[in-house]
Amino acid sequence: MLNYIWLGLIVAAVLIGATNGSMEAVSKEAFDRVEFAVMKLALPLAGIMALWLGVDAVGGRAGLIQILAHLLRPIMRRLFPDVPVQHPAMVRC
Question: Could you report the per-residue pLDDT of 55-74, keeping only the tens digit for each?
Fold first, then answer.
């Protein structure tokens, strides 16, 4: 559903830009926004994600994740009381 909303907004922007005679401004702004999305948002977030996935992998191999899960189990049981004790999400703790 959200895809259709975004498609409608993009089509509306192009149609409005075409009727106003400002297609050059629409296309320039579109490329500026794409550059911002990739260079300022996606690439730095990918680097941060790679770092923390690496930390998670090292912690998993070292057994730190199981220790952390065991320490957080009482908090998780209070936060999610409807999750059964034998549920796969809670068994790992």
Answer: 999 998 999 988 888 888 88
Residue with tokens 């259709």: 4
- Residue 73: CB partners within 8 Å, gap ≥ 6? 90, 93
What 4-7 contacts at long range (C-beta under 8 Å, 24+ apart), as own/partner pairs, is none
Q: Is there a contact between 68 and 47 (Cβ–Cβ < 8 Å)? A: no
What's the whole-model pTM score?
0.52
- DSSP state string for the chain: -HHHHHHHHHHHHHHHHHHHT-HHHHHHHHHHHHHIIIIIIIHHHHHHHHHHHHHHHHHHHHTHHHHHHHHHHHHHHHH-TTS-TTSHHHHT-
